[in-house]
Amino acid sequence: MNKLIAYCGLDCARCDAYLATMNDDWELRKKTAKLWGELNNAPILPEHINCQGCRVEGVKTVFCENMCGVRQCALKKGVTTCADCQNLDKCSTVGAILANDLSALKNLKG
Dihedrals φ, ψ of 38, to 5°? Predict the structure, then answer.
């Protein structure tokens, strides 16, 4: 499976944090920090917007590294992605992502 497909099925290659990191795009970092800060009611700064992908070695955003329940669960279970988990169809941890982004489920099943 493509290493830029996150544990939850989202495509890291389409994530603004990944794009800003790979392109060293300070304007995209500022835009993303502002949006994510507003969405999460949290103080997110442009320098926090650095990520090389959920399932690859390298830097990750604070959320992806430490707070993402899906990533923590997958690491604990030792699965490549949630597609390898027997509980995928009834999992509440990844369920909200899959319900809101049909491409994530397609990425996991594809």
Answer: -65, -45
Distance CA 101, CA 49 (A): 22
Domain that residue 54 falls in:
12-109
Whether residue 5 is contained in a domain is answered as: no
Number of folded domains that form the chain: 1
Looking at the domain assignment, is residue 7 inside a domain? no
Residue 26 lies in a domain: yes
pLDDT in tens, the chain (110 residues): 689 999 999 999 999 999 999 999 999 999 999 999 998 888 999 999 999 999 999 999 988 888 899 999 999 999 999 999 999 989 999 999 999 899 999 999 88
Task: With beta carbons less than 8 A apart as the criterion, state whether 28 and 38 touch.
Answer: no
